[in-house]
Amino acid sequence: MVELDGDDIRISSRGKLAERDIVQFVPFRDYMDRTGNHVLSMARLAKDVLAEIPDQFISYMKSRGIKPNPAPPPYTPSGHTHHTQI
């Protein structure tokens, strides 16, 4: 697992280095809640396993020169008029 998790050293195959680390291993036994709260255990596990995704995504987009689209204008309901009753 340590060899495949490229946090410290990028893995290579047939002489080609991996562009990025896409594998995240965590010791499952460290997430077993001793009180029996499996929901909490799984939530903590998911948080740690998914923690690297935002940085991986940004790194991928930057490496390909892909920039985000501009933010859309704020939503305003069309056809909605405000009438004041007297």
Automatic annotation (TrEMBL):
GO terms for biological process: cellular response to calcium ion. GO terms for molecular function: calcium-dependent phospholipid binding. Residues 1-68 form the Copine C-terminal domain. Residues 63-86 are annotated as: Disordered. It comes from the Eukaryota. GO terms for cellular component: plasma membrane. This is Copine C-terminal domain-containing protein. It comes from Hucho hucho (huchen).
